[in-house]
Amino acid sequence: MKRYSTTSSKIFLTTALFMLLAACGTTQPTKFYTLNPMDTSSVKTIDSRNIVIGVDAVNIAGYIERPQIVTIGEGSELNMSEFNRWAEALSYSIQRVVAENVSAYMKNGMAKPLTQRRNSYDYVISIEINKFDGKFNDKAQLDAWWIITDKNGNTKAREYTKLEAPLGSTYNDLVEKQSELLSDLSTKIAKKMSKI
Asked: Domains plus CATH for the chain?
């Protein structure tokens, strides 16, 4: 039976430890991103009523409701980045940003995430996101159905919105474009609210 010396064992363990530490040192750091509301400095109010609007929890397609940021590859391929992630649940982030954006258009009223019973609000906005992704060096896209109901549950508006924007080559570009698309969606919703 062949025996290994203690010195050989120590050398082997030391080498293995250095290799393990070296591998850990090359791990790419994870970056976290958040969607941002629109710049309100240039927003002109379009609704002066004293109302409260609740933005309901956003229903998002399963393929994008995950911590990893999703991009489109070739054909039907989807890429989910382990090192580029959302800082909060995407559905909540969209709900929060849309509420802030719609509020920017209201002089006397406000919009906020729905946290109470629906009949506590004058109107409720419900959003279903089918697409919210992008292909680098091509375009970012947002595909959504949205509904406005009154406090009694009566539908006042139901619309489908499809938006696109040119996209660069980085995740920062993607998140900025997605924030812009949400601003455009919020503007459409606010304009419709002003006519109800």
From this structure: 32-194 (3.40.50.10610)
Q: Which pLDDT does position 8 carry in this prediction?
A: 55
- Identify the three-state secondary structure at position 87: coil
Res 114: pLDDT: 92
Strand partners, 133: 141
- Within 13 A of 106's CA, how many CA atoms are on the CB side? 23
DSSP class of residue 42 equals G
In the prediction, which pLDDT does 16 show? 56
Q: Provide the terminal-to-terminal Cα distance of the chain, rounded to the nearest Å.
A: 89
Q: Block means of pLDDT (10 residues each) for the chain, length 196 residues?
A: 53 56 67 93 86 95 94 89 94 96 92 88 96 96 96 94 97 97 96 91
Question: Closest Cα to residue 55, out of 107, 104, 102?
Answer: 102
148 contacts 102 by C-beta, under 8 angstroms: no
Nearest to 145 by CA among 155, 135, 154: 155
Q: How are strands ordered across the β-sheet holding 68-72?
A: 31-33, 78-86, 68-72
Class of residue 15 by CB neighbours under 10 A (exposed 0-12, middle 13-18, buried 19+): exposed
